[in-house]
Each structure stands twice: as C-alpha cells, then as structure tokens.
Write a structure and sequence with these properties.
Number of helices: 8
Shape: globular
Order of helices and strands: HHHHHEHEHEEEHEE
Strand order of the largest sheet: 1-2-3-4-5-6-7
C-alpha cells in the first residue's frame, strides 16, 4: 500500500501564494510610455549645459512681438526659454526713462545689439541726442543684425546742433515697412526706393522736395502718412492708391 502523500505545511503554502501574487503584479504592470527622442535624465542635463536646446518656433514668434523688457523677462520662465529671446527676431524699443544718462543708455543698447544672434525686426530709439552721438548711431545702423530691418523709429530730442541723419539709416529702404523720424535732416541727394513702406511719419524733419518726392514715388504701398512741421520743400505730388489717411500740418520752406 502506497504511503500517503504529505502536504506542505501552512506557512510554506502562504509564502508560495505571496510570491506568486508579487510575480503576477509585476508582470501585469503597464509598460512605460515610449516618448520620442527620449534621453536619460543625466544625458539631458549634460546636453543643456553643453549646447543650447532647440526652442519652439512659436515661442520665438511670440517673444519677437513683445517689447524689449517683456521679451527679456521670458528668460526667467524656464531653462529652455533662457535663450529664446536672443534667438528670436529682435524688437528693440528703448525702455529706459529720460532720467538715464546718455552713456548708460548707449551701453545698454550696445550690449543688447552685441548679444543678439537673430535678425532685428524693429529698432526704436528715443531721447538720445543726434548731434553728440552721430558716430554711435552710424555704428549701430551699420550692424549686419539690422540688414533686413522692417521698422525704424528715431525720435531725437531737439538740439540746435548738427541734425544730419547718418546715410546708413536709409540702407534698409528695401525692407522697411515703417519709417518714423523726428528732429533730423535727411541727406540731400539720396534717392532710396521703399517698395514695402506702409507707414511714413516725418516730424520736424529737414527734407528737400526732390528727396521727399522720391520717397513717396517709390513707395506705392503707403497706407498712412504723417508730415508735421517739416522744412526744405514747398509742395508734394501724391499718387497713392492705398493711402487711407494723411496728416499734413504746417510746413516751412
């Protein structure tokens, strides 16, 4: 007669069940989600330190539409946004108050232009006298960063000294959409063509009739024009089909 089969003790059976339950739980866990271009955390940190991470094109577009101060503040959002402002199209609008000394203003603008790597879209400078800073303006306007500038706003405070605008300010004629000048004299004899100009504003500007007529005649896309208290011309012939409004205040010969 066969000997009876002895069953394992209760304790070993419980341990066996617990081990099996752990194995089933492990095998039934969902697989980790496979992310595209996934890198280990350590490698990702190394890449951010060694090289600039790719920035979303939308982020660069948004930053380029912000003012200078707001655009620079985006660097505080996150590490990947740290260099977005420098690589987005530059929208430089002098944000400093009129209490700032000229030397400090020049230093800030120069550092921004030197640090930026993408082309500039807009340059707006106010409160910096032209007569004592002509060479500085000329150096800025010759920078390759500004080669395809679309908006140029130069509002010089009134001073009785030299008001001659550097000829380099008109080298953007082929790309400019906005030209806004105050308290300066346009170079005589220049005849730049502005095929994309949509907004022209001249306030207290010395411009000959020949130069002004040349600017208007080569700018068929002008939709808005402001001529305020300028001098050097007596008349202007207009033939602009897209012109929606024009303001022409007193002008002196």
């Amino acid at each position: 007669m066969d000997a009876p089969v002895s069953l394992p003790a209760t304790a070993p059976r419980a341990a066996l069940r617990e081990s099996a339950a752990r194995r089933i739980a492990f095998l039934s866990r969902p697989a980790p989600l496979a992310l595209p271009n996934h890198r280990p955390a350590a490698a990702h940190v190394t890449r951010e330190r060694a090289d600039e991470p790719e920035q979303p094109p939308l982020g660069g577009t948004i930053v380029s539409l912000l003012g200078t101060e707001d655009g620079a503040r985006t660097a505080a959002l996150a590490r990947r946004w740290r260099r977005v402002w420098r690589s987005a199209p530059l929208n430089l609008d002098d944000p400093l108050s009129n209490e700032i000394e000229d030397s400090r203003r020049i230093d800030v603008v120069s550092r921004i232009l030197a640090a930026h790597r993408a082309p500039a879209r807009r340059l707006a400078l106010r409160l910096l006298p032209l007569d004592s800073n002509g060479p500085c303006f000329d150096a800025w306007l010759r920078l390759p960063l500004l080669d395809a500038l679309q908006e140029l706003l130069l509002h010089f405070p009134f001073f009785p000294g030299d008001r001659a605008l550097p000829a380099s300010a008109l080298r953007f004629a082929a790309s400019l959409r906005v030209l806004d000048l105050t308290n300066c004299d346009l170079p005589a004899g220049c005849s730049p063509a502005f095929p994309h100009l949509a907004h022209l504003s001249l306030h207290e500007v010395g411009v000959t009739e020949e130069v002004l007529q040349g600017i208007v005649s080569t700018s068929p896309g002008i939709t808005a024009m402001v001529l305020d208290n300028n001098n050097g011309h007596r008349r202007l012939r207009l033939s602009l089909s897209r012109l929606s409004w024009k303001i022409s205040l007193s002008k002196m010969p």
